[in-house]
Amino acid sequence: MRAAFASIIRKNAAMDIADLRARAERWIAADPDPATREELRYLLARPDLDESDLADRFAGSLEFGTAGLRGVLGAGPNRMNRAVVARATWALAREILASVPDAAERGVVVGGDARRMSPELSLDVARILAGAGLRVVLFATPVPTPVVGFTVKRLHSAAGVVITASHNPPEYNGYKVYWEDAAQIVPPVDARLAAAIEGAPDANLVACPPAEVLRAQHRLVDAPDDAAREYLRAVRALAVHPTEGDRRLRIVYTPLHGVGDALVHQALADAGFSSVTSVAEQRAPDGAFPTVAFPNPEEPGTMDLALALGTRLGADLVLANDPDVDRLAVAIPRVGGFEQLTGNEVGVLLGHYLLSERTRTGPCAVVTSIVSSPWLARIAADLGATCEQTLTGFKWIAQRSIELERHGIEFVFGYEEALGYCVGNAVRDKDGISAATLIAELAAVLRARRRTLRDELDSIARRWGVFTSMQVNVTRPGASGAERIRRAMAALQAEPPAVLDGDEVVAVADFARRVRRDQRTGAETALSLPASSVISLELASGARVIARPSGTEPKAKLYIDVSEGVRPSEAVGEARGRATAVMLRLAGAFEAAAAF
C-alpha cells in the first residue's frame, strides 16, 4: 500500500512538471522579448526543475491591486515583463477608446521612473497605444510620477500610464494607470480592464509599430518642454505663507537613487530655500539602489546616510523621497541625532497647518485612509472641517476628493500613513515634491516664531490628545504565503478575538462584508465604502487594530492606534510613553491572535 501511494505521488509530480513545461513552452512561443524567452529556456534546462520558481511564475497572473500591476521582473504571467505589459496595454487601449469621449485626440500620457526595464516598458506602452490609434505624449527620460499625473490633468488627456514600482525592492517594477480625471483607476474601470486583459491576444500578436514611424505620423510626441516648469508653478501655488518664515533652514535631502533630485532642489529653491544638500551617494538615479536594501524610507536603515549627513552638517531638516517621488519621509533634530517622524505625524502637521492657517472661503474637507490615525479627524472636527475616510490606496483618496469638489466642498489635503500626501488638487495622487516644499515652509514659519516641528506636534497633542500608531508587516512570499494570508483573514472574519491584552473588542468592522457589528448588542450597520479585505477591531479603551493584506506585496499589514489625553501637569512625552506601552502590548496580542 505504502509503495503504491508513493508511486501515485511520483506520477502526480511528473504530471505537474509536464504541465509546467507545456505552459512555459507556450509562453516562450508568444513572448516578444528574447531576454525572457532565454530566461525560461534556462529554467527548463535545469535538472532540478521542481525546485525552481517556475511553479510560482505560472501560479496565476498579475492582477491590478492597490496601485495597478506590480511584481518581480522576470518571465511568466506572474511576473512583470514585456509580454504582460503588451497584453495589459492592448486591453487598456480598447477600454480607453470605448469609454472616454474623444480619446484618440485627447491622447494618453506615458512615463516611467529609473528602475530596471522602465525605459523599455514605457516605450512599449507608448508604441502599442499609438499603434491602436491613440495620440501618445511620452516622457522619453525618467520622470517623477507626480509630474505624469499633473500632465494628464493639465492636458485633459484621456488617460496616463506610469511604469514604476514606487518604493518596492529593485527586482520589482509596475504599471500604474490614470484615467481621464487624472486619478488612478477604480471600479468599474479596473474590472473592465482586467476582463479585457483576459481576452487579449498573445503578446507577440499585439501591434507595436516602430517609434520612428509613429513619430512621423504625429501619433507619438514628446512631453511638452514646459512640463516640469508648469508642475513647479502649481507646487508653488500651494504655499500657505509664500514669503513668511526663516528660510535659512539647512536641509539635507535624498532621492534614494530615484528621480527626484533636480525637481526637489528646484521646488525648494523656488520657495526660498537655498541651503539644500543632497546625499552624494544617492543623488543619481540607479535602479539597482546600491546603498539600500529596500528603497522605502519607512524601512529601518534606509535613511542612515541622510541622517548621518544631517548630523555632520547640523541640518534643521532631513527629507527623503522614494524612487518615483510620490512619498516623503521627514526627520527632525533631537539630542544626539535625528528622529524620523511617522507618516501620521507628518500628515497631522500638514493637515493642521493647512486647516488652521490658510484662508478658507467655504466648506472644506480633508481625507485619510481607514488605516491612518484618527488624529486628524479629531482636529478637523474642532476646526470646522470635514474629515472623510476611504479604503487604503491613494486612488480612493483622489476619487473622494473629486466627489467632494463636485458637491462644492473644497478638498484641502489628503494623506495615508505610508508617507503619502496630497496638497490640494494640482495632482490627483500622492506627491512627495509638494509635500516636501510645504513641510519645509512650515518648519521655516515655526522657526521664525521660535518653535520647531516637535514643538508643534506637542502643542497639537496638548489640545487634542496624544495618538500613537504602528504597523506590523508579516511577509509570506509565494503562492503558499498568499494562501496562508487569505486563510488568516478568513479566520479573523469568521471569529474575531473577544479581548486583546485585557481590552474588550466592542465592535468589528468587516469591510469585505461591508458591515460593522456591535459585539455587545449584535446590532449591525452598513459600511458605505466599497468591499475590501480589511478587518477593524474597536476596543473598549478607544484603541483600534486593523488587519489587511497588502495590495502590492506578499505580506499582511497590521495597524494599531492608541490615544491618550495629556494631563494638565504632565509632560507630553509622558503621555506619549503611556500610549506607546499600550500600543506595543496590543501589537503583540493582535499579531498572535491573527496568526498570519
Name a few traits of the molecule.
6-stranded mixed sheet, 596 residues, 8-stranded antiparallel sheet, 3 domains, TATA-Binding Protein, Alpha-D-Glucose-1,6-Bisphosphate, Chain A, domain 3, alpha/beta, 23 strands
The count of DSSP E runs of length 2 or more, i.e. the number of strands, is 23
Report the radius of gyration as a whole number of Å: 25 Å
As residue ranges, the low-confidence spans are: 1-15
* Major sheet size, sense and barrel closure: 8 strands, antiparallel
Level-2 CATH architecture of the largest domain: 3-Layer(aba) Sandwich
CATH topology of the largest domain: Alpha-D-Glucose-1,6-Bisphosphate, Chain A, domain 3
Number of discrete helical segments: 19
Mean pLDDT: 94
CATH C-level label of the largest domain: Alpha Beta
Summing up helix and strand content along with how strands pair, one would put the structural category as alpha/beta
What is the beta-strand fraction?
15-25%
Please identify which CATH superfamily of the largest domain we are dealing with: Alpha-D-Glucose-1,6-Bisphosphate, subunit A, domain 3
Bulk shape: globular
> Which bin fits the share of residues in helices?
40-55%
Question: Distance between termini?
Answer: 36 Å
Count of the separate structural domains: 3
